[in-house]
Amino acid sequence: MRIGIVGTAWPMRGGIAQYNALLAHALARSHEVDLVSFTRQYPDFLFPGKSQIDTSEDPRRFPATALIDTIAPWSWERAAGHLRRFRPDGLVLKYWMPFFAPAYGWIARGVRRAGPRPLDGGRPRVVAILDNLIPHERRPFDRELTRWFMGAIDAYIVQSHAVRDDLLSLAPGASFLEVPHPVYDQFGSRVPKAEARAKLGLDPAEPLLLFFGFVRRYKGLDILLDALPQVRRTLPARVLVLGEFYEPKQTIVDQVNRLGIEGAVVLRDDYVPDEQVGLYFSAADVVVLPYRSATQSGIVPIAWQLERPVICTDVGGLAEVVAHQETGLVLPPERPDLLAEAIVRYFADHLEERFIPAIAREKLKYSWERMAGAVAELVAGSGQPTPPG
Q: What Rg value do the Cα atoms of the chain yield, rounded?
């Protein structure tokens, strides 16, 4: 089949661009793929990070044609025309926030006007892979923009029960398949912890907690910091925070100072290039996701690939992929006291040794081949709605 993909791609950075490249590679093993990307993803005044460009030495890439400017409607028609000339059997859109709904909805409608598709003479089918359908941080017109986007979609892939439920709340009869978020395998395999710490200049012995990814309030870094003094009454743990701040950094700095934990927190307010991600995860004892809300997380698939246990909160789809007391620990959200107890227990009971073999088995379920197969099934039109439950 011929499959078009619309979404961010290298040289733009981030998990979405990496996801699209990995999916495109998986699909290209059996299908002809055309990946269309952005000339501008966000206007600078709307982007809270330092740069939208990937600085990794050898990022995962797939050949892409950059045509779309999210705030230039004429570019949307240019992208749709390019894809119509490709004559796709289907179009895949990775959707995660309503800001992209106008561009995605326009392009999808434009592609649906293409001539008969090669597969069977019908019109191209449009498939949306949903990260979030209802965003964590609500803005005016989110729901209206999302509904307009959904009017151009034939079928969906959801990656958690939470997103499935959001989809069915907006479109009870939607056709969809539920497939878990695949692992990010471009970061290599886990290296010995001592080796990773030596390369990064980290203490070889201290308990090390990793908070990874951009910092926003819903991700609950402040909750982890509130838990840290209680943890440190029992063990000399350090928190390593890796990721750009999408909220005022000074708020976190003030909290660290107020709690008197300056020596126990490392804040790296920067994008982590691909070649360092594997080292930092390998160096950590455990990855902590103290989220207030979630759908699914792209951090857990990185942790699974690098065989790092996870301590997370029971929000959204996190508990669907983190099996309590098998691959990690799951606790109620917004409870620093319970988070501190879980961290202390993790080290006291040597749970890392128990969880790693289970993670090594678990990650085999999260393959790109499985995701590519689901996309092809829906593009072919043979996918059936997955029943709730």
A: 21
Distance CA 315, CA 331 (A): 9
Contacts of 172 (CB under 8 A, 6+ apart): none
For residue range 236-264, list pLDDT tens digits in order: 999 999 988 888 899 999 999 999 999 99
Between vectors from CA 221 to CA 207 and to CA 189, what angle results, nearest 5°? 55
Strands (E), the chain: 2-6, 32-40, 64-69, 90-95, 125-130, 155-158, 176-178, 208-212, 238-242, 265-268, 286-289, 310-313, 328-331
Q: Which residue do the tokens 């690098």 mark?
A: 306
Query: Which pLDDT tens digit goes with each residue over 105-162?
Result: 999 999 998 888 988 888 999 999 998 887 656 666 788 999 999 999 999 999 988 8
Q: Detail the DSSP E strand segments found in 29-175.
A: 32-40, 64-69, 90-95, 125-130, 155-158
Sequence-distant (6+) residues with CB within 8 A of 299 are 212, 213, 287, 289
- Name the token pair of 321: 């992929």
**Domains in the chain, ordered, with CATH?**
2-182+367-380 (3.40.50.2000), 185-365 (3.40.50.2000)
What's the pLDDT tens digit per position in 187-212? 888 999 999 999 999 999 999 999 99
| Three-state DSSP class for residue 75 | helix
Count the Cβ atoms, other than its own, within 10 Å of residue 169: 10
Judge contact between 263 and 237, C-beta under 8 A.
no
